[in-house]
Structure formats: C-alpha cells, structure tokens
Amino acid sequence: MKPQKQNKKEFSELIKVNQRIIHKITYIYANGPVDREDLFQEICLQLWKSYPNFREESLFSTWMYRVALNTAISTIRKKKNNFEVESLKNQEQIPDEPFEEKENVARLYKAISKLNNIDKAIILLWLEEKNYDEIASVMGTTKSNVSVKLVRIKRKLEEIIFKQN
Amino acid sequence: MNDKNIKDMWNKAGKAMSSSEYGRETIERFISKRSNSTTQKVKNLIYLDIAVKFMILIILGIDIFLFWGTLNVIVVCATAVILMIPLLLFQFKMLNRFSKIADYGQSAKEKLTSMLTYLRSGFFSTLLAISSTYPFMFIAGMLVYYYSAYGYVKPMDGQDIIVFSVFLIFGLGFNLYINRKQIIYQVKHLETCLSDLNDSSLEMVSDNLEKQRKQDITNKILLSLVLIFGFVLLLVIFKNIGFLIH
Fold first, then answer.
1. Confidence tier at B209 by pLDDT (50, 70, 90)
2. pLDDT of the residue at B205
3. Partner of A119 for a Cys bridge, out of A63, A102, A115, B55, CB 3.0 to 4.6 A?
4. d(Cα B209, Cα B205) in Å, to the nearest integer?
C-alpha cells in the first residue's frame, strides 16, 4: 500500500501506538534529550519514506525495528560524554521501584550505551524477546553468528556493569 | 547477572520511557520535516544537479534563439545540448539506483553493504556528472552575458582564457574535494559497522566493488570525456581561433 497524503494521519497514529520501540532505540543510541528527539524524528521520517516499500510479509513491528535500527546505526553522531540515561535513576521515572532497582536499570542502559552500534542492535532485539531467526533476519546475518555474538555481548555487558559497581 | 535479571531490568526501564511519549500531531510534524541523513544529502545533490542541468538546457535554447544566424555559436550550443541530454539521463539513472540503496527497510547488512558500495564506487561517477555541469553552465551563462553586453561573442585573449580556466578547474577541484571529504566520514563509519557485524560483509563489499568498478569504468571514461569536451567547447567558443567571427 502506497501512503497517500490523506493517510499521513493514519500513519502517525500507527507510529504513536508503536512508539515505545523507537524510544528504546533512541535511549541507547542518542546522547541527550536533543539528540534523542532528532533521532526520533529521523526514524519517523525514514519509516514514512520507506512505508511504500513495506510488504506485509513481516509484522509491522519487525519492519519498524529494521528501519529504526538501520537509521540509528547508519547515523554518525558525536561521542557520548556524560551519559544521559542518568535521568533514568530519577525517582519519578521508574515508579514503584526501590532506589537500588532504579540504579541497576540505569547501569544496564549505561553499559549498553558503551557497546558498538551493531552490538547495541543485537542486544536490543534479544531484550525485546526476538528469537534468533528474527534477529538474524533484521541484521542480515546468520543464526549462528547471532548466537556467538550474543554470548560475547552478554559477557561484555557483565564486565562493564561489574566495573561500574 | 543472568538473562532473566537483564530482561527484567530492561522491561522496568521501558516503563520510564512512557513518560516521554509523543502525540499524533507531533509525530505528523516530525514526518513533514526534512531528513538530515547522508542518503538524503546525496539525493539532494543529484536533485540539484538535475535542476541545474534543466536550467542550462533552457538557457542554451535561449542562446540559440539569441544568436540565430551565427552558425558557429549555434553549432556549439547544439553540441552542448546533445552532450547534456545523456548526462541528464545518467543522473536520473543514478537517482533511481540510489533510491533503491536508500531504502531503510532492508536488513542492516544489506543496507550498510549497498551504501558502502555506492559511496566507494558510484558516488565518484555522480560527482563527475555534477562536475561536468560547470563548463556547460559557464558556456550558457557567458553567451547570455556577451549578448546583453556586446551583442556578439567577444573573443578572449590568452590571459582571459588562462584566468577563466584556472577558476573553473579550481571550482571543480574544490567541489570534488568538499564532497569527497564529507563522504569519507560516512564511509569509515559504515566500514566500522560492517566489521563489527563480524562476518563476511566486508569481503562482500569488496566483491561488489569489483563488479561495480567494471560497470562504472565505462561511465567514468564517458563522463571524463564529456568534461574534457565541455572545456574544449568553452575554449572554442571564447577563443577566436579563426572561424568564430561574428
């Protein structure tokens, strides 16, 4: 289906419903609120432009991961200095959780942000409960490569979190 | 820390993000804005060149009308039009090829590989096609200027020719340098991402590059010839070499 001008609203609604996917990606790829909004905007724009090529062979959400991750991976941005996810530790942002839990969540995000662009994409898909076949399809690699990489990434994450502690 | 712990933490963080959700109107505003991506910049470069080439064709048409009766000028303008049309078709071909590359719905490996292959091979042909626009723009513009200032083509002396040629070559070189420099960062970034993917992606790019290079070599030779021929036309029209007399 080729999007017409009149269904821009319809498409925006579709993005609105699935926007949590984009937020998660912007949190681990962008550096700060401004950069995050820029990336969010760029992802929305690329989704809109790529929509005519969307064939309903895959789920809309899987296709969305594909476009959003490709946008985040191929965009060059400045190196991170002070990690922005510190804001996740903020008392109000993660409701009903003890302070230690909030600290752990922030540590996890900080650790993921230290990975390279490809590793970030693989771990994100795994955390989002995608199976190895889906991860391999989004990344365009083999299932065995995904499996090997995931073991390494998890080890790397543990090391980073351990160092943070 | 086991897998379950990590996933639990990730899901808890997901709740925090719901606080920054955007409304439909904001998203609609986002998709109406302009993209800042490299793919869009390359596309814009091609769009702009196509527009300039169309404008030159119109000006050359005006030149033919203005110098109607001056056979040599008409021959030069007609030759320029004949050379410009395949250049224009070439840019449309590149735009079409690039639109396929620019699709973000491919897998990450396909996207990175196709972008890298294009930027390392096809982009130079695009730049050559853009560069070849300069001499024609100069010819079309100068003819209009000469008609309005003198009513005929004023022959240049040797010094004029050298000054104009130096400016033109400098402009071409500067354009190539700036565009190549902008792309170098993107190429390095794509290479790093592909090497992080840790499989045979970079070898695949090398294979694609080899195939592409063979296809592009004809394009590059033809584009270089058009560029040189454009310069020769420029010299012919502005240097009175005995047959260009009003």
1. low
2. 64
3. A115
4. 6
